[in-house]
Specification:
The complex is a heterodimer of chains A (322) and B (103). Chain A is mainly α and 322 residues long. Helices cover 79% and strands 0% of the residues of chain A. Chain A starts with a helix and ends with a helix. The chains are: A mainly alpha (322), B alpha+beta (103). At the A-B interface, helix 3, helix 11, helix 14 and helix 15 of A face strand 4 of B.
């Protein structure tokens, strides 16, 4: 309980709440777009680099392979579950449902960063290779969503995989930066880390606060303008992360992952993308309405995971994993 | 009063993500020039939209092109086919231009 209260009162969450409240109250508070994009680059560079340094200490073992396997299974499998739920319980058509499902199979880097920060505050260690899993889990869901749309939609031009989409998926900016920083951290190791620690360690939490302030504003603005969201969709946005988390926790328990790594894998399975997938879906499924997926993943699921999900998944992982 | 000639103006409001495909049509049909404008917000058949600041997924752009009426008709035929897949709207109107050799 104390642990949960500690999350709610951390600067990271409180800055998100501040942004959210300011957005709801229509305050003029805004983070300039270029600054927000810069902050997101910084966060990915820092998290990738630190993960790479951790990886330079570790060896490839069964834990690594099973985590990668679970991550890929979630990326391909969770969209199918999400799609079935959306088609059964909401009014979304096949193309919109496939697009939303792809968002829920993919991951949110910021939720991951907030969770790793939370684990840090509780002094729970995690394996650095999980950062590589973050990058790997960005894209399978895009392919799954596209296949779902093509298989189920009656529209002849539901979407397709072409060169432009392949480039968007494989060379997506966040994936390139995350994997590139991971490689640089891995190559340069502790010495490299020591040389840029002042840049990537001390300011990290403050930058995260500023970024979450912006996320709060963006989330509440989306909710306020809430295009087409009804109660069933909101319920989906709250239930789907729990289904993802159950998969992540169960898989982590079966694979015998340690608490920290298992918690982060669970957070990844529970989170929904709002950066890489929306851009890819505009090209893959141009007929899908981005308002549904963005409002759900950014306005409903992200705040839920940040405030309720992360402490809940960590608590459950502490009970289930050792 | 300088001499003015009649040409056709095309305005397209489309998703930024699909801009390349529409520009290909203009280039392919030999439109000599066009300008792309950013947009702030708006409302369409799917309700109001706001630009998304984290991704560019819901951003719209305005493409302005002026060309001969024959070229404009060819472009509009291609656009009609594109709009079967990609969302957006297009308007054509008659305008009078200075320096007609540029269009």
């Amino acid at each position: 309980m104390d642990q949960a209260l500690a999350t709610l009162l951390s600067p990271v969450v409180l800055f998100f709440v501040l942004g959210f409240g300011a957005g709801l109250a229509r305050s003029s508070l805004a983070v300039p777009e270029a600054v927000a994009k810069g902050l997101s680059l910084y966060l990915m560079l820092a998290i990738g680099f630190k993960g790479g340094v951790e990886m330079s200490h570790a060896h490839l073992d069964a834990g690594v392979l099973s985590t990668v396997g679970l991550g890929l299974a979630a990326g391909f499998g969770l969209p199918v579950v999400a799609f079935a739920l959306l088609r059964a319980f909401t009014k979304l058509d096949a193309i919109d449902a496939a697009s939303v499902a792809a968002h829920y199979g993919s991951i949110s880097v910021v939720t991951f960063v907030a969770a790793s920060d939370y684990l840090g505050a509780l002094a729970i260690d995690y394996d650095g290779y999980i950062v590589a899993v973050v990058a790997l889990m960005e894209t399978p869901a895009i392919i799954a969503g596209l296949v779902l749309a093509q298989r189920t939609s009656t529209e002849p031009r539901a979407g397709g995989f072409d060169k432009k989409l392949a480039r968007e998926v494989l060379l997506n900016g966040s994936v390139v930066l995350l994997l590139g920083s991971l490689a640089i951290g891995w190559i340069t190791g502790d010495e490299g880390k020591a040389s840029i620690a002042a840049f990537i360690e001390s300011p990290f939490k403050g930058v995260l606060c500023l970024f979450l302030l912006d996320m709060g504003i963006a989330a509440s603005t989306r909710l306020r303008k809430g295009a087409g969201l009804d109660l069933r969709l909101v319920v989906f946005g709250l239930v789907m992360p729990l289904i993802g988390a159950a998969f992540g926790l169960g898989g982590s328990a079966l694979a015998g992952l340690p608490v920290g790594t298992g918690t982060l894998l669970t957070v990844l399975c529970a989170s929904a993308s709002y950066i890489a997938v929306p851009a890819a879906m505009r090209i893959a499924l141009p007929r899908a309405n981005p308002a549904y997926s963005l409002t759900l993943s950014l306005g409903v699921t992200f705040p839920f995971n940040l405030i309720v999900g992360i402490p809940l998944y960590t608590h459950l992982a502490q009970q289930l994993l050792s | 009063m300088p001499e003015l000639a009649t040409r056709t103006k095309l305005d397209l409001v489309i998703d930024r993500a699909h801009l390349d495909r529409f520009v290909e049509v203009l280039d392919g049909r030999g439109v000599q020039g066009y300008t792309v404008f950013e947009s702030l917000s708006g409302k369409g058949t799917r309700g109001a939209w706001i630009p998304d600041r984290l991704t560019d997924a819901s951003d719209r752009v305005l493409v302005l092109a002026v060309t001969s009426s024959e070229t404009a008709e060819e472009v509009l035929e291609d656009l009609a086919a594109l709009f079967e897949t990609f969302p957006g709207v297009a308007f054509a109107s008659e305008v009078r231009v200075l320096r007609p050799d540029r269009f």
